[in-house]
Amino acid sequence: MFSAPGVDRIIRPKERSRYQEPMSIPKVYSAINYDFRPISYWSPATNPLEVALRNVKGRNRREIIQDYYSRGLLPALSENLLSDTLDEDTRRSVCQIHPWFMGGEYLPDCCRHEVEIGRIELESTTRDVTSVRARSRGGRIEWTILRRTQLLMLGRPSFSIRPHDPEDSTAQDDAKTNIMAFMTKEGAQ
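The structure assignment produced for this chain is given below.
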């Protein structure tokens, strides 16, 4: 208990309960459906664009694929540009066009049964990309945060029972802590 001279009420520290309230997400962007929850992260793609983009790492290549798809020209793109990962020579050539083409191209390949479920894309010189990925492991979903060739999961791996489970406050707290630690670390560099 804390009290100050001349104050007639006592301020008690808030007691911690075993139950944590679900994390509150500020609803800032009207174009985002904050109530959407996928049934599974591993559902089959429902259209050709989803198939084409599923594991493409490069941010600019993803934009090119979306542009070609919207114009009905997806078959005109070379297989190399549609691949998940560019070979070293192509990656070097593309990145010489402009540093923006580096964004996402240096991310590690997805592991078996792993999918990207979210991205943080910075408007920087090299359009840095941070990838949030999920994979099924022992009946739970393990997810990791990666940037270029680094695994950025700080502390223990984060797990949840269902995709983006608002009732699983432990996984949310882990995620919030890991992302905040990463962003703080990045801001300090």
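Interim note for the steering committee: The chain has a mean pLDDT of 75. The chain has one domain: 48-188.
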